[in-house]
Amino acid sequence: xxxxxxxxxxxxxxxxxxxxxxxxxxxxxxxxxxxxxxxxxxxxxxxxxxxxxxxxxxxxxxxxxxxxxxxxxxxxxxxxxxxxxxxxxxxxxxxxxxxxxxxxxxxxxxxxxxxxxxxxxxxxxxxxxxxxxxxxxxxxxxxxxxxxxxxxxxxxxxx
Length: 159
What we know:
5 helices, about 160 residues, alpha/beta, globular, about 40% helix, Nucleotidyltransferase, domain 5, five-stranded mixed sheet, 7 strands
């Protein structure tokens, strides 16, 4: 089963309110394309965490092993796999050096687990360059971040 996953993360401030957007596409044997979209906001996060969450959510949505093309405008995400940083981090116990842990290791560990059953090609796309599905993921992510930011602003104005 071949699946395309498009992902993006956004953050208003870094750290600050953020969100992710994920789109899954699958074309069934009859030639019908099925599409699912996911997004969620978080009140206090970073852009990198949202980039990772977008990929995690897409992979965790798959119910059987798949051949996946995962598209992201995050070099942080794609380079970790394509340049084998992740393998080094795992070998070193999630440490860059003896005194410096890998940031966001909680999400990296979850992502590694979500990726395990699948054959994944990690594809970097240039952000804000007109790729329609990347742009749509960006809209999902920024809308989720903005909704969280607006809710936080409403709470502050009550006091």
